[in-house]
Specification:
The complex is a heterodimer of chains A (294) and B (329).
Chain A lengths: L8 H37 L3 E2 L3 E2 L6 H8 L1 H34 L5 H13 L2 H12 L4 H8 L13 H25 L3 H9 L4 H12 L1 H17 L2 H7 L6 H10 L4 H32 L1
Antiparallel strand pairs in A: 1-2
Chain B lengths: L1 E4 L6 H9 L10 E2 L2 E2 L10 E4 L11 H11 L4 H14 L15 H13 L5 E5 L7 H18 L2 E6 L2 H7 L2 E6 L2 E6 L1 H6 L4 H6 L3 E12 L2 E5 L5 E5 L7 E7 L4 E2 L9 E13 L2 E7 L5 E7 L9 E6 L4 E4 L8
Parallel strand pairs in B: 1-6, 1-7, 4-5, 5-6
Antiparallel strand pairs in B: 2-3, 7-8, 9-10, 9-12, 10-11, 12-18, 13-17, 14-15, 14-17, 15-16
The chains are: A mainly alpha (294), B alpha+beta (329).
Chain lengths: 294, 329
Amino acid sequence: MPEPGRHSPGVHRRWDLAGLGLLSPLLLLLLFAFLLPIATLIPTSLRPYIAGTGIGEGLTLEHYVKALTDGFYLEIILRTVVLGLVVTLLTLVVGYPLAYVLARSTSRWRHWLMLLVVFPLLLNLVVRTFGWIALLARRGLVNQWLMGLGLTEEPVRLMFNFTGLLIGLTHIFLPFMVLVLVAVIQNIPREVEDAARTLGAGFWSVFMRVTLPLSVPGILSGSILVFVLTISALVTPRLLGGPTYKVMSTLIYEQFLQLLNWPAGSAMAVVMTLIVLALILLGTRLARRWEAQA
Amino acid sequence: MVALVGPSGCGKTTVLRMIAGLIEPDAGQVLIGGTDVTHAPAHKRNLGLVFQSYALFPHLSVFENVAFGLRRRRVPEAEIRRRVPQALALVRLEGFESRFPRQLSGGQQQRVALARAVVTEPRVLLLDEPLSNLDASLRDAMRVELRRLQQSLGITTVFVTHDQEEALTLSDRVAVMRAGRIEQVGAPQEVYERPANAFVAGFVGRTNLVDASVEGADGALLRLSGPGGVPLRARGAAPPGTRVRLALRHEKIRLGDAPPTGAANVHTAEVALAAFAGAQWHYVLRLPGGLELQAEAPSDAAHPQGAQVTVWWTAEDMILLPAEAAPDA
């Protein structure tokens, strides 16, 4: 089995150059379309905001201080992170069994099931979100059923709060989690599971001691993906959360385009970027430690 | 030790997986020690299975790989600490406990898989192409190792191979399979010396298959006429006029030296091709009448291409096979 670590230094060097060549279009795109805009946010975020005129002269940390001390902003940041974590956990819990079945099934329905998982991704995000509005609204389908069944007298608030965002975002990001997990589970050799069975492990034991540990890299990358997508999602939180129930992305949107407070919006955007970066770093660190151990 | 041998795709591995309980047979029974285990789940059968790919647990150390089966049986920790090193010593991998599978060579992985399979003292040890992923020199060493291990443990072993030589050297009984059916079961010598049909004769050992028709009998010897009217003598019984097929092992054809009196088949042949293969020479011999036979002889007496040589073999060397419809061997 070829091991990457065993190549001679010369081979390594040549690969690095070839790799750089192949990556450079992507690197350039990232540099100009992603890194530079984010970098320009930093100076903007340090400017004072003057009501009526916009960006003022001089340097100030007031926007960062406000974002990290003001209860209003702190609550939004905390809410966003918690939302990200809960959505990630939910997609994982719902997605893993689905991914396992998809990866291990030999049925001819497998491809249809896969299509069903991917299908929501083919629909416009706004359309999907309006679908949820129709279901979750005060006079929506879910509330009509709940009241029709006599489970509740008053309509339950399913929108413009945490529940609404949770339902909508979990649904929208589930396919990403499933796709990542299917790929990883499919890569676990079935013979390794068979070996565990012949050694006396029942289905559950095989799953807990072989399949699950071997899918940890996929669980980590799927979780990072869903978390990052969730906390940076804008359309769904805006539509399902309404103008009052805010998360970081809707707050940033509002600061930039409605209040024209670019410095405060930039500061919030930088804070969000840092949270995402910290999580990605933590995730890769965990993955690397896992792989070093395995 | 039983070998299942046959060309690829003949169902050897499927049989092994059925014994292991990883596939359920559509019909028939699997008996282990007289007990019907046909519907018992794999994890309750107490078998050791070594996969062709070894299928070690990549996330567990060598120690934990070997301990896996013991832990599932809730063997006390102290006993695990005793039995795992024992099993590793058996396959000569002492000191490798804390390594991970990807840090091991193919041969070492193979031995870990073996230790993992035998540590639980299974009723039957199943080996799926245990040597096919190893290079030639390692394969020879492991073949001896396997035989030694199996004899010292005394575990009933079923192993699958497409390599007939491996099957002959390793096993007490050989089952030759073709297209899901067992063509012949027997001791290695028996299968080799008395193949049941042309397929077995062709698959086990290197064999010339010669079509001939029976002309008559001289006592226990048949007089036959081969392709191009070559006269042949073989032991057996068949009415005159029947078409038969004869198997003649490459190494049974003797070249050059004077045939003993009473040698049943003596011919003068032309060496159409001579190829050096280390310990032996491989020849293609053309007999008068056009019949071509392949032969092997020790390399100390070489015959150049184009030379005329005396060749001979006994009546017993020619094995009379039942006529077969599909001559695909």
